[in-house]
Design brief:
The structure is a homodimer. Chain A is of the alpha/beta class. A five-stranded mixed beta sheet of chain A has the order 3-2-1-4-8. In chain A, strand 12, helix 9 and strand 13 form a beta-alpha-beta unit. Chain A is globular and about 60 Å long. Chain A starts with a strand and ends with a helix. In chain A, 55% of the residues are buried. Chains A and B meet through helix 8 of A and helix 8 of B.
């Protein structure tokens, strides 16, 4: 048995996970990220004890603990080099956690954890597997031969920051034209807002009103009812997503690309056209093709993924 | 000792190469690609015997032969799935070669060979190494832990066909906006021609006249003499190159990126500004950075690279 801890800006979530990635017990406490980090670590250790106790175990029964954390992580040492959400700079997270719970501890970037968790549960043993998450940003993690690909320095797999439109929209990272600035849920909302301004007659206004806000579903829902302006937003957004996937595929040819994040709940309405575009525009015309699927883990992905990197 | 064979559209070049990538002897014959492929293979085997004899060896003294070939190759079987330059479709190149010269034979895509050769000679044992060639197209090869990264299907590492400008210039591959359509020598010539049309006063006209043609050096040379229109071409071209390198780096974080191809002879005039752009725009702000260098192998790269994949 393993424990996975998902250290988020809002909540610390933890759970006991078996070797097949099944979640046995879980719990959560608020992060309260403004307090001293050492107090957050204390709550993480406490929560680990609790979720173990929930299934009748002690920490001594746990093989290893994995911690998924936003930011730049030194996977070898378990040090958080820099994290913005939970203020940390050169913080020895694994070492501090071990002082409170004497276990093997691995710390990794949350996107790498998510990829490893998804691979473990839904990867079907693929030789190479990539998870791309369309959420607030565009996250990604690459698993090659069962291990996370980290690059020589641990900073690899930031697919959200490949260039999609050189010199284009400013990204939160400071560069212009990143894939994330076009294909994230945040970008889709902006694209939807712009189209709504230009098309006061569009059904998108009614959809947004019913939901109480404009979100990643607004254009997709209005398009399903035949709204042309919404369909144009959806078509452009799908091309942005697909064009980035073509880049990833031409570069890496992973056996599987799984698409996660809230927008992936659109299912075949998103995946179908993405596959068509990639089929038509991918450079590989003669060899077996990458399978493009929807990610399967949602709410518990962070916990399962964190446990997976400790396995 | 190894033999490397560089099967090009114009010439077949071959040489004896030692384990450190030093070329001991070499020779070449015309490919005459219009004749039956089997005759080309016969010349390849004959040339292998000759270059071995040139340094007092027989084929029995050779550990293995590597063949670098343009197109889509099945590295496991040595079959050329498809090649456009030398017409081949599902041609068992390794098998046919072995019938004429009983040796271990490996066949790989020429870009993969080039990367492996460059890594062997100039890689300094980097954990991950990428060669990017700015030539007629933009070629690339990735070496991870001493082996070529091929993806699950052998078709990986087509960095020239990552998207640089979604929906932009049409690429020879059929997709719009590929990096190759902006950062190849071919693209630079087009960009130079366009600027020359718009600026009849530009020094580029004189430079091109002296050389007898417009080429990848025209804008660089005129810019060095203070020509503003030429400087604008160079600046834009460097941003195209650098923006693609940022994509590769954000995705893969290779320890070394070596830039090859004719344009890399511009040296620091190209590399300096590329490094500055990547430093400023790369996502990795906290971990050790990728080293960006000029490739060192030029004329013999194909032979040495082909031998390297057989080692």
């Amino acid at each position: 048995m393993y424990i996975g801890i998902d250290l988020g800006g809002t909540n610390i979530a933890a759970g006991v996970v078996d070797a097949d990635g099944r979640l046995i017990s879980s719990g959560a406490v608020p992060t309260r990220s403004e307090r001293p980090t050492i107090e957050i670590v204390r709550d993480m250790a406490e929560l680990a004890r609790e979720v173990a106790a929930d299934c009748g175990m002690e920490l001594a029964d746990i093989k290893a603990v994995g911690i998924g954390c936003p930011g730049t992580i030194n996977f070898e040492t378990g040090e958080v080099i820099y994290s913005n959400n939970i203020k940390m700079e050169h913080f020895p997270l694994a070492e501090e956690f071990r002082k409170l719970a004497d276990l093997t501890v691995k710390v990794d970037n949350d996107a790498n954890c998510a990829a490893m968790g998804e691979y473990l549960v839904n990867g079907g043993g693929a030789k190479s597997f990539m998870l791309i998450t369309l959420g607030t940003g565009v996250g990604s993690g690459l698993v090659v031969n069962g291990s996370v690909y980290r690059g020589f320095n641990g900073a690899a797999s930031e697919a959200g920051h490949i260039t999609l439109v050189s010199g284009g929209e400013l990204c939160t990272c400071g560069k212009k034209g990143c894939w994330e600035a076009y294909a994230s849920a945040t970008a889709l909302v902006k694209q939807t807002e712009k189209a709504m301004e230009e098309h006061p007659e569009s059904l998108m206004h009614k959809v947004a009103e019913e939901f109480g806000k404009i979100n990643g579903q607004t254009a997709f829902l209005a398009a399903k009812s035949g709204d042309e302006a919404a369909q144009a937003v959806v078509d452009a957004y799908i091309r942005y997503v697909a064009d980035g996937i073509v880049s990833v595929e031409n570069m890496l040819q992973p056996e599987v690309i799984a698409i996660g994040g809230g927008i992936s709940r659109e299912g075949e309405g998103l995946l179908g056209p993405v596959r068509d575009y990639v089929e038509k525009n991918g450079f590989n015309k003669f060899m077996e093709k990458t399978r493009i699927t929807a990610a399967g883990l949602f709410n518990d992905a962070g916990i399962i993924g964190a446990a997976a990197i400790a396995m």
